[in-house]
């Protein structure tokens, strides 16, 4: 004997409810899914959204003045990693933008040496 009762289709449940005089209030497009344990679900969400862990973007922001120098870091700000490989940097001064553009290979080398940032392959400099 199984522990759970047999499941009927929604049409059959509506027919049984009409026969017994009980309204069927469950929406037709709602699906019943198996219950998942909360612990593993929360852990996957923490990993997916980098909650409580250092993300690659935050590591780059923390080390940015060391990588480009204090003067260049005052006029530039690493924002995010697009498509998993391209680091977008907002630069507020054209001279600093040209300076960073000339040294982009060495900056990328320093970024790739940071823990968890070896997947960054490009450097996009945007005026902002």
Please give the structural blueprint.
Layout (H helix, E strand, L loop, with lengths): L9 H11 L17 H11 L7 H13 L1 H5 L1 E7 L3 E6 L2 H9 L1 H10 L8 E6 L1
Parallel strand pairs: 2-3
Antiparallel strand pairs: 1-2
What keywords describe this structure?
128 residues, alpha+beta, GMP Synthetase, Chain A, domain 3, three-stranded mixed sheet
Structure description:
- The structure is a single chain.
- The protein has helices spanning 10-20, 38-48, 56-68, 70-74, 94-102, 104-113; strands spanning 76-82, 86-91, 122-127.
- With 128 residues, it is an alpha+beta fold.
- The chain has two domains: 10-48, no CATH class; 56-127, GMP Synthetase, Chain A, domain 3 (2-Layer Sandwich), CATH 3.30.300.
- Strands 1-2-3 form a three-stranded mixed β-sheet.
- A hairpin with a 3-residue loop joins strand 1 (76-82) and strand 2.
- The mean pLDDT is 88.
* Separate helix tally: 6
Count of individual domains: 2
User: What's the SSE pattern?
Assistant: HHHHEEHHE
Task: State the CATH class of the largest domain.
Answer: Alpha Beta
What gross morphology would you assign? elongated
Number of strands: 3
Here the CATH topology of the largest domain equals: GMP Synthetase, Chain A, domain 3
Task: Give the end-to-end Cα distance, rounded to a whole number of Å.
Answer: 68 Å
Strand content: 5-15%
Question: What is the annotated CATH architecture of the largest domain?
Answer: 2-Layer Sandwich
What is the percent of helical residues?
40-55%
Biggest β-sheet strands, sense, barrel = 3 strands, mixed
| Overall pLDDT confidence | 88
Structural class label: alpha+beta
Low-pLDDT segments: none
The radius of gyration is 27 Å
- Strand arrangement across the biggest beta sheet: 1-2-3
């Amino acid at each position: 004997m199984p522990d759970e009762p047999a499941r009927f289709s929604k049409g059959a449940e509506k027919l049984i409810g009409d026969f017994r005089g009980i309204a069927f209030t469950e929406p037709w497009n709602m699906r019943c899914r198996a219950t998942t344990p909360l612990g593993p679900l929360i852990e996957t969400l923490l990993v997916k959204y980098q909650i409580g862990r250092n993300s690659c973007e935050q590591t780059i922001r923390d080390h940015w003045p060391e990588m480009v120098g204090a003067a260049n870091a005052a006029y530039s700000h690493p924002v995010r990693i697009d498509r998993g490989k391209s680091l977008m940097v907002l630069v507020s001064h054209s001279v600093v933008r040209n300076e960073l553009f000339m040294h982009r290979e060495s900056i990328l080398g320093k970024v790739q040496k940071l823990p968890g940032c070896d997947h960054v392959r490009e450097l996009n400099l945007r005026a902002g």
